Model the fold of this input.
Amino acid sequence: MIDRARYESRLAAKSIPTTIVATRPSTPPGKRPTGGWSRGKNRDLRHNCWLVATADPARKRNDVEHLVSFDTAVDFPGRLLSDDSFNSDRLTKKVLVLSCLTIGPRENGALDATCIAQMSRRFDWLLRYRLAEGYESFAHIPAFFASDLSKRLKAGGVLALVPIEDRLEKLFTTSAERDNSAPVAAPGIDRALAAKLGVTAASLARSSEFQLALIDANPRLSIEEVSALKSALEGEAGEDEDVGQPDDDPDDPDRRVASDLKVERNLHGYLEILEFLFRLSGRELDHDRMESDPFSEMSMDAILTRDRRSAGRTATLLPWDMMRAMTAAARFVATYSQYIISTFRDLRSFDQERVKSFETPSSSRLMPKGGTRVLPLWNRGGSDDRPENTILLDEAVRHLLAACAILIAGFAARRDIGVRSAHYGCLAEKENGLLFMSIYIGKTDKDRVDIPVPAILKTVVQTLEEISADTREAKGTKWLFEVAFDLNKLNRLVSSRFHQTIDAFLKFAGAAPPEGQDSWNLSIHMLRRGYGIWYFYGLTGGSTDALSMMYRHNDPNMTRIYFTMALPGEINRLKSELDVRLRSSVANRTKEDQDWIDSAYDRLSYLKSHQQAFDEPRCEIFVEKMLGLWKGTESVIGVGGKALYNDVQAIAERAMASIRIGSRANDPGALQTPLLQRFFDYAKTHFLEPVLGTNMWCAANPHDPQHRANAECLKLKGRGNAPWKKDGRPEDLMPDFDFACNRVCVGCRFGAAFNDGQRALQEEVEEHRRAAGDAATASLKHEGELLLAELEAVITRAGPVSKGGNI
Done:
């Protein structure tokens, strides 16, 4: 613990970054206030409420400014982070936030304000857990702290980090002892209760278990009173928190009240704060220095592998489903855009003239034949009575914005904030005829970047410019996805929450959800990832030039070599060196040692995130093929394909053996979860990738010298090399797809031809047969027949077809 004077002197020595746009002494309850802020030279780091912004509001449309609080309730009873007893922890949090706003916690660049606000809230929960466990500082946490934290979060979300039931019992006992004659009442139905318990209103409002615990602590409370309390908490809960779903044993004696929503996918966000604090300990946290690595007993990767929900990553949008969604969006924009814009203009003119009409002749002529009629009304005034086969303008505009978002996200491969920040004048055509879209990139550049896009986006952007024109003029902005209901009330906009509106649009457009799903659950990020999956896995036999241009790669093969060979090797080498350096105690490290360790952490974090971006889609499409073989929707030929099929059978048999016979889980659906997990584990340690430029797949492990020696493409490549020029020629790192084709791969011991590959092979056989029959000379006919016989023999040796469905 440090005193107030030392706390303030440490803050006085720091400069205030421009990204802290305003400060105030304390955080007010409820919504963000418009007044009471200190700005410019009046900003003060001693204040306990900061308004931070890292993006340019002229380039990023939403989520620019965020509150970061340093006076939240963190312990029972009603102890705030702003109390003098927490000077040390409050200083730690401020140093951490300042680091994130300037050089970054890993010294590789500042974080986005949205990430910093999330990290700030997660730090508070980390502190609540530390205090609940009885550790007075971060310097005193044990080696198992991170592992236990993760277990708690997985088991019950953030509310399981503190003993809420014990605190409730103490709270009501104290109230009863204070006045034995009076009935015990709830100690408040607003943020006051959450503050007394040392947590947030959001965490209590989102926990059904808390309501039961409240009744247990005070049986005199009625269900109606508890419901009123929950409703009041929901009204007060403004935080955007991570909360979790219990999945542990209900008879566990250490089990605590849990939150209702899931937190497994956000475990990394909590654990990395410990990493940040450890890194800062060597530079700025001399008041609470962590001497040992919090992950020395169990690495962060190992903890996440154990606890993180496997389905937490963004779902994969397969190529054919992505094409259906984009086709529906393109068709809607082409057929409905002018009709909706004309109807929209009708309503604007009706509002000016204070008249109402269901249609105008000019707009009705634009309605697609056999299509849905758009009524020039935002709403029906509470009445659901409207003509059949009609929609209100609000719904029509939402569908139009969603369709445009699908096309921009699909073709520009950007995240949600980049799409929502599309602006007027974002398209430009270069001298070479290429069309570029200037779009905001929030995760890295935090600025607009030119992305090559197809000409179809001209229509999309023109549509958005037309429908947003009067709103942009009235607001003095350039945002294309802002459409106001009323130009006199510019804060009310047609929804552009794409995670909600895209599914509604696809349902309206009649696009059935992907196989096995009740709804699309389509997000902008799925479209972004789907772009790469479409070009890399969907266009087998096609060119990857477009993907190379989009992702700024010069050579797909070089990218493949980098991710498959160079990157894992560099990660392992760096891990080994880092492990050796970390064995020396902090006291014995030189400044050069510490600088190297900090730099190595930076590099390792970057490399691992870079590899993960490539490896997740690779594993997902691998598992998709394995599931297809198991279900019988896919078949395969080829030696490599047969080996994969046999492995799928063996994995399925082991998964079935793990299900207890006669239990409730003994049904076909119960096999899916353990089978999927086993398939993913297999995919992480094996290889299956499409052979660029063919319809084949390759199962060769590039790290295995024996596999490389037996790969047919490398044998073919070797025949073309002069044997007297071996000296100085670099060794092949992996199968060389430049020497691969359908004929070569199907005869290789690592080749696999799935359904589309088998069709391509049969088409190739028919082409050879026609060519031999139409040969101009007997000699050409003979050569053609020999090639045909050779190809048929190779295909025969690759068969018979292996197909599941009865496993």
